[in-house]
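Format notes (please read before filing issues)

Several people have asked whether sequences and structure tokens are stored in separate files. They are not. Every record keeps both together, in the order shown below: the sequence lines, then the token lines. Line labels are part of the format and must not be stripped during preprocessing.
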Amino acid sequence: MPIVDPQGFDALNLFPLQINPHFTNALPEGHKGETREQRIRETAGRRARTDDYWSTGR
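Then the structure lines:
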């Protein structure tokens, strides 16, 4: 998922959600960057509206 708005996620236009099947809460040992969740929260805070996301709990 790009950190900037690509002007839409219409793709097949089946439903108004973006699915990210690779989302994980894992924090690999030695990882020195931000987690996916931190990036999502930071990005959502910069928008006029926020997007919800679901985790599979893995």
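For reference, the curators noted about this record: DSSP finds one helix and no strands in the chain. The first helix runs from residue 36 to 45.
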